[in-house]
Amino acid sequence: MQDVKVRIKYLSALRDKTHRRLDELELPAGSSLQDVAGWLAKSYGLTVPGPALISTLNGRGWTQLPESLATEIHDGDEVALFPLVSGG
Amino acid sequence: MLKGYMGKLLRVNLSHRTVSEEAIPEKDYEWLLGGRGVAAKYYYNEIPAGTDPVGEANKLIFMTGPLTGTPLVSTTKFQLATKSPETRMYLCSNCGGDFGPHLKQAGFDGLIIEGKAADWTWLSIVDGKVEFNDARAWKGFTSVKTLEVLREAIGEKKAGAMSIGPAGERLVRFSYINVDERAFGRGGPGAVMGSKLLKGIVVKGTGTIPLANKERVDEIRKSAIKELKTSRANHTKFGTPQYIEVINELGCMPTRNFQTGQFEQCDKIDAHVMRDVYLEKNYACYRCSVACGKICVVKDGPFAGARARTEFETVALLGPNCGISDFGAIVKANQVCDELGMDTMSAGNAVALVMELYEKGLISREDTCGIDARFGDSAALIGILELIAARKGIGDLIAEGMYHVKRAKPEWKRYVLDVKGMPFAGYDPRGFTGNGLTYGTSNRGACHNVGGWTIRAELQSGKYDRYALKGKGALVKSVQDSRAYVDSLGMCTVVRGAFGFSESPTGDVLEAVTGHPFTPVLTKIAERIYNLERVILNREGIRRADDLMPERITKEHLPSGPTKGRILTEEMYAEMLDEYYAARGWDADGVVRPETAKAAGLGELVTL
């Protein structure tokens, strides 16, 4: 089976933590958000999901997904990480 | 007597040039807390339905809260209740700056301005002494200049001051009151001051606010400052512009009059651009350790020299919503709004409407007094703002606000994004259904503050996601209620978390300040306030039909971006609204049921 590519976007203050706007990550087919979380912890020391940020997969919160961290990643998926939002 | 309060208000009648002091019943504090709650009660009793918002009978009811001016953190807030010139109904508005703390230190929890001056007037309140002064020479001054001359006139650089600019003088329906360069922004209270020929008020107080437990207050303050250093670090660094990139990524950035939900040039106007290119310094309100205000300066280009304190809502609505990708132009437009004295949010919506009408050929270059009013044109943005404030060309109609525009030009209704005459805040509700319900059921029109801000919960809650309908009624009620009590405290919502002021309040700060066990009953007080406000709105004729979404949201799918294809149809919205009314105890037409009013104890506070 082919690897899947996922784009990870770092928004707003998260950019100052990673010093990057974007990563493109290749993972083996069948990988899950748990694998993405593991890569983020190893690469940037980020705890995802965690109390200090919001994480989305294709615009939906990770914690809202029926299978949560076990959600399988598909080719072309987008993950976004950003600080806790509270209104402008 | 309860501590934390001064126990009285100051009533100033401009028609008769009289001043009186009145005790505020202690039960009002116990049942309504202060600020927004107590101001709503005075509104209920003193501003009947049918009052002309820009007539002599309207009043400006300013009210502080128990925490205003106390030595905690960001205890800067005070509240205004008045009949809104923009929505033609009840308006509550919340504001920072130094005015509230000084009013309280001058000996008053509240200030009621009534009547109409014979000619342009400014007021000074120095401790208990009130003077009426001639402001005829100040007519035409910008709101910012007026703040300066007010402070100079009493020789107090650090006094609290509020003023209106030329837009308020000309009764622009979304003119604001500038308060120490913060604002009572929404709903057009500047036009109420303008209608009273009141150019400004300056207040200086030197008194002490009594505290029940000074040592405990000091402990709580120190602990909160420590927590805020971490929890609000991003506010200190970026302020609210930190949300620009996020809201755009989520596909609900108002773009070209809400025609779509993602702005393709967002990277030119995001928080990093603000910080790295335009940020001059941070601005902090009274006793605030966060300093989320970002004073931006344009160093070069066509808008060199422009300076303003730029927030997310301003950027969203004067920027992407007008197709503007030049941050310098947004700073300039922000400054123009401040000087003329107009709400940047309603103004941004107004300019976007003009641009769409112009691009669709529904208004001509003659209507715009020669301005080529296209989306993305920075000069057009500034020019249209000036037209509105000067009431020239199309600006004269737009200055009457969306309530009037929709009635005068019903064929433009599909391009107007408002609820009850108040234009949208900077989020497209097709991307977050709960956000739509907050706009619809906010007690002052399409507002993200009084209406409640649900976006975080809609991304994080395990009960529903952002596009779900079920559960949103209860969510919106909960966030609205928590905001109702926070608006009555006298403390900024940015720091509330450090004091336990959540949807389920904890902590003992109110007990330490007032000596009264408020915390366990805050949610009950909040429900009482929200119901009292809805009773006022019902009295003014507001029903279900007024709580609905505008056509663009219910009939047009978002055409592009991550929310492509999303819509909030009438049927979808109705499902949430029914759930919301049930959670509130209102009937199907949005009227507060007698048993709900009784359970909230409203009959013991006012004559229903």
Characterise this structure.
The complex is a heterodimer of chains A (about 90) and B (about 600). Chain A is of the alpha+beta class and about 90 residues long. Chain A has a single domain, classed as Roll (Ubiquitin-like (UB roll)), CATH 3.10.20.30. In chain A, about 20% of the residues lie in helices and about 30% in strands. Chain A has two helices and five strands. Chain A has a five-stranded mixed β-sheet with strand order 2-1-5-3-4. The relative contact order of chain A is 0.28. With about 600 residues, chain B is α+β, with helices and mostly antiparallel strands. Chain B folds into three domains: about 10-205, Aldehyde ferredoxin oxidoreductase, N-terminal domain (Aldehyde Ferredoxin Oxidoreductase,  A, domain 1), CATH 3.60.9; about 230-400, Orthogonal Bundle (Aldehyde Ferredoxin Oxidoreductase Protein, subunit A, domain 2), CATH 1.10.569.10; about 435-605, Aldehyde Ferredoxin Oxidoreductase Protein, subunit A, domain 3, CATH 1.10.599. Helix content of chain B is about 40%, strand content about 15%. In chain B, strand 16 (about 420) and strand 17 form a beta hairpin. The radius of gyration of chain B is 22 Å and the shape is globular. The model of chain B has no long low-confidence stretch (mean pLDDT about 95). Classes of the chains: A alpha+beta (about 90), B alpha+beta (about 600).
Task: Offer a quick outline of the entry.
Chain A is built from 2 helices and 5 strands, in the order E-H-E-H-E-E-E.
